[in-house]
Amino acid sequence: MKSTAERAYIYAKACGIIGKSFIGPRIRRLQDINRLSDLDRLLFPDSYEDLPERELLVRLEKRIIARTTNQIHLLLKTQQNIPKFIDLLLRSYEYADIKLLVSALMEKEQFPPSHTDLGRFTTVHFEKYPDPKAMFSGTDFEWILNKLPESQSDNIRLQAELDQRYYAALWHELSRISDPHIRYIKEIVAEEIKLKNILWALRLQCYYNFDKPSIEGLLLHLQDGKRSLVKTALSCIDKPGDQFAPWTSFEYQSLLNPEEPGTLWRLNVPYVQRKAALLLYKKARTYFRRSPFSLNTTACFIKLKQFEEDLLISLAEGISLGLSGREVLSMLEVLQ
User: Fold this and answer.
1) Quick check: bond before 130 cis, omega within 30?
2) Which of 71, 197, 252, 294 holds its CA 20 to 30 A away from the CA of 228?
3) Is the pLDDT of residue 3 over 70?
4) pTM above 0.85, yes or no
């Protein structure tokens, strides 16, 4: 059990980092950024890189991710006993990197994709590429050795299983904790699982033409008490992607791209994804201060920093395509 002083220190540390992050009102500081070099100087004033714009994007994206994980580490190193669910929130990076790693193995790429350095939280031996046994043996991912994909459809199923295992483990660990304040982060993760199911179902249907039985087997079949976290996703599979009317009763209808007079409506999956991310961000920002001296602080802190990371990477990518900072932020609907 942490002392009151230790919990107060953790909360103050988290608030200090969040206060300097580009979330909330500080997002507006990004709207006048129109060059990657300016974004680099804003984020890394003491270590910006003097590179041509065309070479800066990839490097900047890696540094933005490292900036996030470094700040998460700053908070975690102040805590003596880190619960498994906090460990899993950080290791979401490792799960994402494994998806890229498995794809590289399938394509027999000579060099491995880059991965996020999680320090002591890293479990996979990325440096052993391209030897899957050396990379995965003795880790939670050893099961992959028997399921290495040989086709794109195999890879889709493996990536779905990675998501299933990740969220099942995260939900299990959250459900084991008796702290009543955990209900806030548990609510966020439950919503994230529901939205993950919806987005995965829409992608599989719209991009890969999977039928309903095939989609159903790839979703996250988890329960929040008596509430199913997959039911909403299953309900949207039967809805047409080119008619808005059948979606008016959809639970997350507010996340859909709106109808425009005189134009044919078509479901825009990237739009839904952006709105879903914004919904989760707003919930994490609200709950961050609800129970300041609990594990909820650390969990919401991680979620907020990861939202900021996605925002900054989207901004960098938009600028590299010739958009202004204001145009990117307006498209993401974060200037509110």
Assistant:
1) yes
2) 294
3) no
4) yes
